[in-house]
């Protein structure tokens, strides 16, 4: 149990929400306002790691420039002190990956709304000149009523244009999550919004089938499938998916960026014009949201 003396600056650590590879996420209460925030705190073994410190600063610098209802809001960055952290808006603790462990039906009944919110958040981010670079189910928080917040801008970057794009060369470090990386991201090429379109296509595939479009027995096999394997159809795993939605996913998962939807706005227009499912999915008898606290309610 957290004791009263467990403070980071003005924030009292109330409850550990999640532990990641390099960070802990805490629910915290700011003093004296009593406002609740989520603190993303570097774990003790990473607090002197220059790369992780740079990631934390990059996340704050980019998120601070974004103001949209479907993007998590940042409040403060603290780099000096024993535990560097970002204070973030406190929202639902459930991310899409956690919900999908119960099966795609856990979200299917409100998938139209969820997808629209995801797409609008990404489109706004792109319109501000940034590409997320790590679009995956884990990085979308979702609430009981289908509201969505895009999170984690650790490896996000400015979209290069003009001469900067022409002379940017090849990245040495291919950052991202293997199951969702666009072919050009795997190759270390300069990225734009179409890389996020591809990754979001992988997310949509998983949302209707319960699994990512490509799997492999090794990292190299998985990455090679993104580059050269035929594009799978979600109809194989879920025959309730419409052909129109399957066709959209095929375009989003095109190997070449120029063959994909050019923007998230184009994705959004098509999503609004088609049905995802042939028959409306039923609301599950037991909700995955019952397993997770709601922000501000304890």
Explain the overall architecture:
By secondary structure, this protein is α+β, with helices and mostly antiparallel strands. 32% of the residues lie in helices and 15% in strands. It contains ten helices and ten strands. It has helices at residues 50-63, 96-100, 105-108, 111-127, 162-166, 183-186, 193-209, 219-228, 243-252, 264-273, and strands at 7-8, 11-19, 23-30, 36-42, 74-78, 85-89, 130-131, 140-142, 148-150, 157-158. The chain has a six-stranded antiparallel beta sheet, covered by helices on one side. A hairpin with a 5-residue loop joins strand 8 (140-142) and strand 9 (148-150). Helix 4 (111-127) runs antiparallel to helix 10 (264-273). The protein is globular, with a radius of gyration of 20 Å. The two termini are 15 Å apart.
Please tally the β strands and state the result. Answer: 10
Residues in helices, as a percent range? 25-40%
How much strand? Answer: 15-25%
Shape descriptor reads: globular
Runs in which pLDDT lies below 50 for 5 or more consecutive residues are none
Tell me about the largest β-sheet: 6 strands, antiparallel
Q: Distance between the terminal alpha carbons, to the nearest Å?
A: 15 Å
Structural class: alpha+beta
Give the strand line-up of the largest sheet.
Answer: 1-2-3-4-6-5
Quick rundown:
With 298 residues, the chain is of the alpha+beta class. The protein has helices at residues 50-63, 96-100, 105-108, 111-127, 162-166, 183-186, 193-209, 219-228, 243-252, 264-273, and strands spanning 7-8, 11-19, 23-30, 36-42, 74-78, 85-89, 130-131, 140-142, 148-150, 157-158.
């Amino acid at each position: 149990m957290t004791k009263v003396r467990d403070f980071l600056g003005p924030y009292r650590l109330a409850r550990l929400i999640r532990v990641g590879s390099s960070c802990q996420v805490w629910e915290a209460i700011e003093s004296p306002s009593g406002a609740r925030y989520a603190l993303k705190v570097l774990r003790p073994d990473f607090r002197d790691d220059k790369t992780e410190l740079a990631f934390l600063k990059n996340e704050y610098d980019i998120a601070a420039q974004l103001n949209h209802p479907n993007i998590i809001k940042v409040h403060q960055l603290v780099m000096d002190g024993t535990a560097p952290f970002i204070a973030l808006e406190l929202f639902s603790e459930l991310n899409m990956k956690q919900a999908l462990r119960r099966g795609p039906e856990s979200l299917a009944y409100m998938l139209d709304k969820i997808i629209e919110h995801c797409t609008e958040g990404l489109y706004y981010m792109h319109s501000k000149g940034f590409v997320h670079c790590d679009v995956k189910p884990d990085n979308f928080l979702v609430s009981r009523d289908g509201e969505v917040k895009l999170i984690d801008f650790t490896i996000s970057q400015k979209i290069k244009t003009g001469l900067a794009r022409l002379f940017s060369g090849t990245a040495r470090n291919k950052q991202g999550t293997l199951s969702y990386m666009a072919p050009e991201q795997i190759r270390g090429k300069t990225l734009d919004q179409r890389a996020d379109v591809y990754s979001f296509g992988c997310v949509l595939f998983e949302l209707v089938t319960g699994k990512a479009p490509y799997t492999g027995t090794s990292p190299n096999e998985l990455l090679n499938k993104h580059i050269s394997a035929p594009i799978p159809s979600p109809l194989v795993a879920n025959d309730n998916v419409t052909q129109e939605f399957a066709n959209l996913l095929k375009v989003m998962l095109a190997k070449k960026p120029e063959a994909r939807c050019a923007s998230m706005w184009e994705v959004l227009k098509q999503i609004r014009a088609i049905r995802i499912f042939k028959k409306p999915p039923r609301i599950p008898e037991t909700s995955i949201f019952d397993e997770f606290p709601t922000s501000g309610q304890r």
